[in-house]
Amino acid sequence: MFQGITRNWPIKGAALFLALMLYVAVQLQQPVTTSFDVTLIVQLPRGRALVQKPPKVRVQISGKGSQILKLRSLAGDITRRVPDTLTSSTYSIQLDPSEVELALPKGADVRVMEVRPSEITLALDSVSRKEVRIVSLVSVTPDSAQVLHGGLSMTPTTVRLVGPDKALAAIDSVTTVPMEITNVSGEFSRQVPIDTAPLGIVRLAPKQVTITGEMGRIAERSFGGIPVETGAGAVTSLIVTPARVSVAVSGPEERVQALTRDSLRVVAHISGTTGGSARITVIAPRGITARAIPDSVTVKRRAPAPPPPAPPTRPNRRRPSSG
C-alpha cells in the first residue's frame, strides 16, 4: 500500500501543487471585505500645533482577494491640510469614502465601503487675527520720453495676519518685495509677492498684490498771464510785481493737451507784512509737472487810502435881541 502511494510521487506531488495553486488563484479572485487602520496626516500652518494627536482611522474596503492582499502590504494614510487663514482653535475634517478612494495606491481595484470616524475635530493652539496696511516697494524706471501716469496703483492695500497675540502686536504694516519695473509702455500690471521673511511664524493672506500703472509720452506746453495769488485767494493788501507770470508744464501727452488756464494756480508764499521777495509755486493736476517763470515776485505793502476831507463848518450867526 505504501508503495502504491509513493509510486510516481513526483507526478503526484506536481499535480497536488498545481491543484493548490489553482485553488488559491480562484479564492483570490473572489470578492472580500476587510478593514484596516490608516494614519491621518494633518498638514498644519506654520507656527500652529495640535493640542492632541488625531485618532486612528479605520477603513472598510471591498475588492478581489488579490487586491486586498496587496493593500495589506502597504502603509495606507490620508492627508488633510488645515487652511493658513484659520484663526479658531478647532477644525473639523470630513472623511468621505469617495475621497479616501483617491488616496489608495494607483491601480488598486477596490472600493471603500466605510470610514470610521467619518468626522474628526482637531484641537489646535489659539491664535488671533489682525489687518495691517501694505507698503509698496515697487518703482518704475521710464524709458526716454516716457512718463508714468498718476503713479502706481496697488490692490489690495491691506493684508490679514494670523498668529500669536505677542507676534501680531509688533507688526503695524508689511511690505512688498523690492521690485523695479522697466521696459514697459502703455498699461501694465505685475503680480508682486509680499515679503514674509520678517513675519516669522505669522501667516498672511493674500500673499501677493497686483501693481498697475500706465506709461505715456511726455509733452510740454506753456501758459502765459496766469495771475499770482495767495493760498487764500487774490492778493488785495499787497502789490505783487509781476502780477501775472508764465507757467511751463510737462507730463503725459493727453493730459497736457487737456489742460486749460483754469487748471493751474500760481501761489505766492508771503511771509510777514512788510513785503520783500516771495517764492511762488504752481498747483497743477496730478501727474503734471509745472513751474512758474519767473519763480519769485516782489511784494510791497499797498499804501493806505487817504481819509475823506472833513465837511465845511458854518459860521454861527447871532440873532438881534428885542427891546
Number of strands: 23
CATH architecture of the largest domain: Beta Complex
SSE pattern, N- to C-terminal: HHEEHEEHEEEEEEEHEEEEEEEEHEEEE
User: What is the level 1 CATH name of the largest domain?
Assistant: Mainly Beta
Radius of gyration: 44 Å
The major sheet is characterized as:
11 strands, mixed
Number of helices: 6
What percent of residues adopt helix (DSSP H or I)?
Answer: 10-25%
Derived from helix and strand composition plus strand pairing, the structural class reads alpha+beta
Give a structural overview.
It is a single chain. The strands form five sheets. Strands 9, 10, 14, 16, 17, 18, 19, 20, 21, 22 and 23 form an eleven-stranded mixed β-sheet that branches. Strands 3-1-2-5 form a four-stranded mixed β-sheet. The chain has a four-stranded mixed β-sheet with strand order 12-7-11-15. It has helices at residues 2-6, 9-28, 65-72, 97-102, 165-169, 253-257; strands spanning 31-43, 57-64, 77-81, 90-94, 110-116, 119-123, 128-135, 138-140, 146-148, 153-155, 158-163, 173-175, 179-181, 187-193, 203-205, 208-230, 233-234, 238-241, 244-252, 265-269, 275-283, 289-293, 296-301. The protein contains six helices and 23 strands. The longest helix has 20 residues, at 9-28.
List the helices and strands and how they pair.
Blueprint: H1 2-6, H2 9-28, E1 31-43, E2 57-64, H3 65-72, E3 77-81, E4 90-94, H4 97-102, E5 110-116, E6 119-123, E7 128-135, E8 138-140, E9 146-148, E10 153-155, E11 158-163, H5 165-169, E12 173-175, E13 179-181, E14 187-193, E15 203-205, E16 208-230, E17 233-234, E18 238-241, E19 244-252, H6 253-257, E20 265-269, E21 275-283, E22 289-293, E23 296-301
Parallel strand pairs: 1-3, 7-12, 8-13, 16-20
Antiparallel strand pairs: 1-2, 2-5, 4-6, 7-11, 9-16, 10-16, 11-15, 14-16, 16-17, 16-19, 18-23, 19-22, 20-21, 21-23
